[in-house]
Design goal:
The protein is α/β, with parallel strands linked by helices. The longest helix has 19 residues. The protein has eight helices and six strands; from the N terminus they run H-H-E-E-H-E-H-H-E-H-E-H-E-H. The chain has two domains: about 80 residues, no CATH class; about 70 residues, no CATH class. Helix 3 crosses helix 5 and helix 6 packs across helix 7. About 45% of the residues lie in helices and about 15% in strands. Strands 1-2 form a two-stranded antiparallel ribbon.
Length: about 190
């Protein structure tokens, strides 16, 4: 939110109203490359869409800006674009973006579009393994709780269990109210392994 950005920049919240900040960062109203980083692994860039977090919602504004952001990244030489934050879940996990990119001008581009979830899942599992090693614990002797079992949480759980020598002694699955039936299906699948 603008207030959050203002606090990070140590500015009074009213110092830069939302539309003034948007105009300063995105004078033409289009996505913009805000930062690049070069490492031994290659060059990365941060392309930002002209929307604040509370404006991210499924629909044409987000989809159009995201597709234009992918076009921009592609024109700058990106081989892969990772959608961040809530953008994947608001764009059919990127499939809507791929369809929209064809309409915005770079049909046939070789730029891959990813949610970045796979890298996050691997990172979660590696972190769990590092914590187990650092504490001398064995997964099979522990009660393990997974809080949040959307696409990243459930994939992390599946990968962790798939690579484990033995499952946890006890597994607790926690998610938002109303997700009971989905969690029961997940638990049934896990029991069948």
């Amino acid at each position: 939110s603008p207030g959050h950005l203002a606090r990070l920049a140590r500015l009074p919240e009213a110092a830069l109203p939302r539309e003034e900040l948007r105009t300063l960062l995105f004078p033409d109203g289009r996505p913009r490359l805000l930062e690049t980083l070069s490492t031994p692994l290659g060059r990365s860039g941060f392309v930002c869409v002209p929307l604040f977090a509370d404006e991210l919602a499924p629909g044409e504004p987000l989809l159009g800006h995201t597709a234009r952001g992918v076009d921009l990244a592609s024109s700058l030489g990106a081989r892969s674009v990772s959608l961040a934050g809530m953008i994947p879940s608001h764009t059919g996990y990127g499939f809507d973006v791929l369809r929209a990119v064809g309409r915005t001008g770079t049909a046939g581009t070789t730029t891959a579009v990813t949610t970045g979830h796979a890298a996050t899942v691997v990172s979660v599992v590696k972190t769990v393994h590092a914590a187990l090693e650092a504490t001398g614990q064995e997964l099979g002797a522990l009660t393990v709780a997974f809080v949040g079992l959307g696409s990243i949480g459930s994939s992390s759980l599946e990968l962790l269990l798939g690579r484990a020598q033995s499952p946890p002694a006890r597994l607790l699955l926690c998610d938002a109210p109303g997700s009971g039936p989905r969690l029961e299906e997940l638990a049934d699948r896990l029991r069948e392994r």
